[in-house]
Hints:
Keywords: Monooxygenase, Oxidoreductase. The chain is α/β, with parallel strands linked by helices.
Amino acid sequence: MQFGVFSVSDVTTDPTNGRTPSEAERIQAMVRIAKKAEEVGLDVFATGEHHNPPFVASSPTTMLGYVAAQTERIILSTSTTLITTNDPVKIAEDFAMLQHLAGGRVDLMMGRGNTGPVYPWFGQDIRQGIPLAVENYALLHRLWREDVVDWEGKFRTPLQSFTATPRPLDGVPPFVWHGSIRSPEIAEQAAYYGDGFFHNNIFWPAEHTKRMVRLYRQRYEHYGHGKADQAIVGLGGQVFMRKNSQDAVREFRPYFDNAPVYGGGPSLEEFSSATPLTVGSPQQVIDRTLGFRENVGDYQRQLFLMDHAGLPLKTVLEQMDLLGEEVVPVLREEFAKLKPAHVPDAPTHQSLLADKQRAESSEAAE
């Protein structure tokens, strides 16, 4: 089981003091959070991709390449790579380069994002969102696995005898998660390729998450990649912790009430009841997170959103200390006890390379 944090990179005013960090401060804060994730023993740091204020994460590979040079162990990922508005050729080359620089500590999550205007900014039509996601990923999948590609589709110019460079490290493409909160077509796409499915369920009730993951698992088995309970599933989550739960609620409430994505909607208590948001003690976070398994089965990756809504960096780092020291060790132990032996771990570069070498040895023996 992999545990980590993801950032949406929002630049938001702290409602308790009226201070808004600069873009430079926010970018440097994300780097500090990524390094802190490794320091406290987490497995993954992931960043989103946005091209509009108030977000600053417009170039994930630049951010992750910089972090790679300052870390040794942690997996570097995206929590969204816009498969609809990025050229799949550029994705193929950018992430292969990042793979080499990071020694294989790279995977990525494909998504369509949540900002409609991004489509025309990059010359695309939002009404073609699903077809773009399907076609662009089909090309990307080939670019990483075929040395020479001839290709023609609807949304970009044809390719003739094209080779993406550099080639994936060790001949092993980065592992791909397909992220979606609402589109069954994306769950189907993940299942078709045998890739991972990440349901960022931070705004959704448990029943919706359960239906989406169940669909993915059923189709994963249908396409012959393994049993339904062996499909590779990841979940999002949101937490705010203090030793005492009342202190956590009191401290987080002004951030919740004024955050761009929350303010003016349901109360903190209503939102916490309807979604995975957990504001309380470390034990409450442990109990709530262990309960996710009841809805989705055994899963491989849990990412938490912690640096949003104007929370100061000092507070976020305190949260990560609690996560690394009191929450994740217990979750690792408890999830490991529950997971059957036939359910795989989350893929890594090392495990994918070992699979490749076994397959090559088997073919040679035949």
